């Protein structure tokens, strides 16, 4: 297993993994229309490019042989604070439950510490079972946030934080 930093050339692969993973993750939580709206908003190639080039997000891919299993994206010093925000973490359904998610979170934690950040921070849908994964990884729920994302859609999130 290798962890590599994604470049522009990897963006179609990231988009592909998202489209494979989101229906299984959110099918029971969000409407089909909201899933399609959010995928288009966050995973078009121009949107991914702007996340990397303008918003300081770094994407790390987990690679096994020729195959990409999933990705995490993070942003150091989010909102000018010494905290690293994990914006996205998605593994293909067949690659979940094998320790890869823990490896990605720990990797980002190491990078955050090297950059003198004191905590990892993320938003997660309140009904996503990933909440249990984050708790296992040492995150605590520190708040609730309902975000209006347009077109009548809402994100109902917990804010979770892990001290480093
Ligand atoms: C959430 C996700 C990233 C976790 O990665 P993973 O590789 O499946 O998880 P791991 O195998 O590394 O699990 C690490 C530990 O957390 C535990 N864990 C995993 N999922 C859990 C859950 N839902 N509830 C409680 N514990 C959980 C595992 O048992 C493991 O514990 P152990 O160290 O005692 O064995 C992955 O399952 C995924 O991509 N899910 C779908 C997408 C998603 O929901 N992303 C998050 C969006 S905010």
Automatic annotation (TrEMBL):
The keyword Acyltransferase applies. GO terms for molecular function: acyltransferase activity, transferring groups other than amino-acyl groups. The keyword Transferase applies. InterPro entries: Acyl_CoA_acyltransferase, GNAT_dom, YpeA/RimI_acetyltransf. Residues 1-164 form the N-acetyltransferase domain. Gene3D superfamilies: 3.40.630.30. It holds the Pfam family Acetyltransf_10. Keywords: Acyltransferase, Transferase. It comes from the Bacteria. This is GNAT family N-acetyltransferase. It comes from Runella rosea. The lineage of its organism: Bacteria, Pseudomonadati, Bacteroidota, Cytophagia, Cytophagales.
């Amino acid at each position: 297993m290798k962890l590599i930093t994604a470049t522009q050339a990897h963006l179609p692969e990231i988009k592909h993994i998202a489209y494979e993973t989101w229906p299984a993750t959110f099918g029971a939580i969000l409407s089909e229309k909201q899933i399609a709206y959010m995928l288009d908003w966050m995973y078009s190639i121009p949107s991914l490019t702007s996340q990397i080039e303008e918003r300081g997000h770094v994407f790390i891919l987990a690679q096994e042989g020729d195959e990409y299993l999933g990705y995490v994206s993070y942003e150091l010093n989010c909102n000018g604070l010494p905290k690293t925000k994990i914006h996205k973490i998605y593994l293909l359904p067949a690659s979940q439950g094998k320790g890869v998610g823990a490896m990605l979170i720990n990797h980002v934690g190491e990078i955050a510490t090297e950059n003198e950040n004191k905590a990892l921070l993320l938003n997660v849908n309140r009904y996503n079972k990933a909440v249990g994964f984050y708790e296992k990884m040492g995150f605590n729920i520190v708040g609730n946030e309902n975000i209006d994302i347009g077109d009548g859609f809402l994100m109902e999130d917990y804010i979770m934080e892990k001290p480093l």
